Amino acid sequence: MTAAVVVSGVLKRFGTTTALDGISCEIQAGELFGFIGPDGAGKTTLFRILATLLVPDRGTATVLGQDVVRGMWPLRSRIGYMAGRFSLYGDLSVEENLRFFASVFGTTLEQEHERIAPIYSQLEPFKDRRAAALSGGMKQKLALCCALVHRPELLLLDEPTTGVDAVSRREFWDLLGELTRGGLTTVVSTPYMDEADRCDRVALIQSGTLLAVDTPDAIARSFDRPLLGIRTSRHYQILQAVREYGHTHSVYPFGESLHYTDARQHAPADQIALELQTFLESQGIRDAQIAPIAASVEDTFMARMGATGAERPLSQ
Amino acid sequence: MTAGLAIETRDLERRFGRFVAVDRITFDVREGEVFGFLGANGAGKTTAIRMLTGLLAPSGGQARVAGHDVYTESEIIKRQIGYMSQRFSLYEDLTVVENIQLYGGIYDLSNAQIRERTDAMLSQLGLTGAAREYVRAIPLGWRQKLAFSVALLHQPRIVFLDEPTSGVDPITRRQFWELIYAAAARGTTVFVTTHYMDEAEYCDRVSIMVAGRIGAIGTPAELKQQFGAATMDDVFVALARPAAETAGSGAAP
Prior knowledge:
The complex is a heterodimer of chains A (316) and B (253).
Chain A (H helix, E strand, L loop, with lengths): L2 E12 L2 E12 L3 E5 L6 H8 L7 E6 L2 E2 L4 H5 L2 E4 L11 H11 L4 H15 L12 H13 L5 E5 L7 H16 L3 E6 L10 E6 L2 E6 L1 H6 L5 E5 L3 H9 L4 E7 L2 E6 L6 H14 L6 E4 L4 H12 L8
Parallel strand pairs in A: 3-8, 3-9, 6-7, 7-8
Antiparallel strand pairs in A: 1-2, 1-4, 4-5, 9-10, 11-13, 11-14, 12-13
Helix pairs in contact in A: 3-5, 4-5
Chain B lengths: L4 E12 L2 E12 L3 E6 L5 H8 L7 E6 L2 E2 L4 H7 E5 L10 H11 L4 H15 L14 H12 L6 E5 L7 H16 L3 E5 L3 H4 L4 E6 L2 E6 L1 H7 L5 H9 L13
Parallel strand pairs in B: 3-8, 3-9, 6-7, 7-8
Antiparallel strand pairs in B: 1-2, 1-4, 4-5, 9-10
Helix pairs in contact in B: 3-4, 5-6
């Protein structure tokens, strides 16, 4: 495999804020690669550097074999970049936006029709509608079309699913899956941890550093303690009760259950579950179902965040 | 107003020209409830929230919020509710304390009340040391927790939260929900929208808007049973998928 992107010790500061703190990673050609992390983690800064829009203070980044600083001009026509904020022309129609972006890159909508047809066919019924009047999901599909219209070798999509509803998010990821199967290298960022599973490999990013780079499966499996799920209808009450338990390492709400880890890192999960059950019963809670479960990417993210320091107020 | 209800709507409707953004919705929210208001982009959530917060007059139907009529008492409603959104909540160029003072002033709190509640809020959030920092300088997660507390400063009976945890890190997102639970435990009604389907599980009841109507309403357990789904994500997709085939003309003019 050849590397489509090589990031090596990239550091970027804005005033006193360190947006990227010397990060390194490689993305292989043909991969669907995700940078997963919250707002303020450094995702957008990294994407702007890869898109040749920002220059790193230190370190280097190579995209498609070219340095992002020295190779800026030739690179721009080889990559498709979709910015995090909606950056199309709201007063132009769907079709006008596409024609504009095609012409900027010296091509035409007609020439490229086949390439974008799988996505554009969903937009075509609304081709005369102003872009500003599209729903969130449709806006993102149009932006994706505009990023694809000049046949880039690499796609950089910065938070394409943020603020988009769960159904449109699934559809958008389905499209990305199809594009990658067609051989296009795609780099995506997202704050939604559950989207990690749609990627071949992911980097977990927080406060300008990478917490992990691997397949979603390997990241989930790297969780280094027994994890228990507590199924209950009384989240808040049980959460508070478990906090008072002497052996608690962490307890977090996770959808319909609570996820619990024990301070005794190497104790068997079954024994931990039994003791926790006994404790909850002593607190008058008899309807909690406790069982060992497999960790998710989000569990790992939180565990590693905890290790390096979650967002804390300035006073602490 | 029916006793024990924070919000009641009957056939509430809003049209923009020929487009029906909210199509005669009828639902109640009980006092002290954490109510999740879900729906696809363009399903009409924002229009419904603007009517319930007194910002937009309905085209038809009835609604009472905190016991007051949305047509004739919208100014009273605005004083009895709190509101926070992901996009805008605090002034970044003001300090933490200045933001609290500003909102306290807007809601007619006395200087003594503002001082007392500021101290209590900052110590509860662990932000006492950051009181004189500009809001833009504090981490996003803490900004969101502060914004929530500021929305509760005037002790409203209902607080509307519009995607309050969007983009927030996973630990802070959970801490935020504990603030929600704590507010509900004190009797505040919480009306919240989110795109995180795990958060739908944390609500007492959830409604899902589909193409301007309430497509389903109930406890998370009831909805999962009704749709034979394992998770709220599956419920949402089962309901919203057919409606998502359009371009979502729901974008209000």
